[in-house]
Specification:
Elements: E1 6-11, E2 14-18, H1 25-39, E3 43-45, E4 48-50, E5 56-58, H2 68-84, E6 90-92, H3 95-114, E7 120-129, E8 135-146, E9 150-152, H4 154-163, H5 167-187, E10 194-198, H6 201-204, H7 209-220, E11 227-231, H8 233-236, H9 240-253, E12 256-262, H10 268-274, E13 279-282, H11 284-288, H12 294-309, E14 313-317, H13 322-330, E15 335-337, E16 345-346, H14 347-370
Parallel strand pairs: 5-6, 8-10, 10-11, 11-12, 12-13, 13-14, 14-15
Antiparallel strand pairs: 1-2, 3-4, 7-8, 7-15, 7-16, 8-9
Length: about 375
């Protein structure tokens, strides 16, 4: 920095750089590059080589504000955009960022009251057993029925819920609602349907997570073996030793454990070797590659074969085409889910689907018996 520039610590790990003389975008970008390069140098601490990264947001006067408050606010918005873009980079403020920031704030504010107002709802996407052709399970997927914005998909609000720590309470609600619904289907005479619930990193690492799972199973009456908890590799990367103990406790309860999005990370095989994972869900990107170049289908087959070789049940998600289904049957994939079979359904719609399948199977059995 020059003698005329100001470097100040805003608080925590945030710093503010004030560059006078009407700095232009090119000069600001050049300065940001220099800062990133300077901070990229390693630090030797107690014999360890440590690195830090930096996310930089830039606002320019007079384009992005005429006073201190506006310039700081817009630079802060741009900094969060730099974090969202992968960190260790810089971003200039744009009006579109402000629009997104206002939207995020509105979503966060409304989401805090969504549970109390009964605006959250679970949809269920069927899983189909390829050996029998019957529904073998359902994945519980959250939707938000906002009174003004309509039906919101998870990608619109789940990241915000995670960022602001709201996902833990939401996760508890999802787990209880899904287990109660599965038990209700059984009480209504339906065949057992395993229900799968996605678990976020924050929820999995919460100190009351295991106690909450026990409480939900006791309250709902659902046998533990019919609850499947889906975790991603990002959950396991937090602390492998601690995760292993949590998974072990879940297995002692009798809960089924699934690794979601298998094949998209870097350490999945090592996790599968020492963690008590029962089910491996093949990511939809591998399923979609089946109809691409030959290398794509070979890669999908290799991922399925790896999971099978480790003795795991394989579920392919995102199946939309008959050709994808045919290939998965050839590879002896155990179960599938996707739009080819059904979109996610409301609880009542899923109940009707189970009733139709049950009636169909009963008619088939009666016909066979008559023959």
């Amino acid at each position: 920095m020059r003698a005329s520039d100001t470097v100040s610590r805003q608080g925590g790990d945030e710093f503010v750089l004030l560059v006078p003389d009407g700095a232009q975008a090119a000069a600001a970008a050049q300065l940001a590059e220099k800062i990133l390069q300077a901070l990229a140098a390693p630090h030797m601490i107690l014999g360890h080589e440590l690195y830090i990264t930096c996310s930089i947001g830039i606002s320019l006067c007079p384009f992005d504000g005429l006073d201190t408050e506006a310039l700081l606010k817009n630079a802060d918005t741009a900094m969060y955009q730099a974090k969202s873009a992968g960190r260790n980079n810089y971003q200039f403020f744009t009006p579109a960022m402000n629009t997104r920031a206002v939207e995020r704030q509105a979503i966060e504010s409304s989401l805090r009251h969504a549970l109390l107002r009964g605006e959250l709802e679970l949809y269920y996407q069927p899983k189909v057993d390829l050996r029998s052709g019957r529904i073998c399970g359902a994945e519980a997927l959250m939707r938000w029925n906002h009174p003004e914005w309509g039906l919101l998909m998870p990608d619109r609000f789940i990241p915000i819920a995670e960022e602001f720590g709201l996902i833990v309470n939401m996760g508890r609600w999802v787990l209880l609602t899904a287990c109660m619904q599965a038990q209700q289907w059984k009480s209504a005479g339906s065949a057992w349907v395993d229900v799968a619930v996605n678990v976020s990193t924050l929820e999995f690492c919460h100190p009351e997570f295991l106690a909450n799972v026990r409480e939900v199973l006791a309250q709902s009456g659902l046998p533990a073996r019919h609850l499947q908890l889906e975790i991603t590799e990002s959950v396991l990367m937090r602390d492998a030793a601690s995760c292993a103990e949590t998974l072990r406790q879940l297995k002692l309860m009798g809960v089924t454990l699934a690794l979601d999005d298998f094949g998209t990370g870097y350490s999945s095989l090592s996790y599968l070797n020492f963690l008590p994972i029962d089910v491996v869900k093949i990511d939809r990107s591998f399923v979609q590659s089946i109809n691409g170049p030959q290398e794509g289908s070979m890669l999908a087959g290799a991922v399925i074969a790896m999971g099978q070789s480790l003795g795991k049940t394989i579920v392919a998600e995102g199946v939309e085409l008959e050709s994808e289904l045919a290939y998965l049957q050839t590879m002896r994939c155990e179960a599938v889910q996707g739009f080819l079979f059904s979109h996610p359904l409301q609880a009542e719609q899923f109940s009707n689907l189970l009733k139709r399948e049950q009636a169909s199977m009963a008619a088939m059995n009666f016909s066979n018996w008559k023959v």
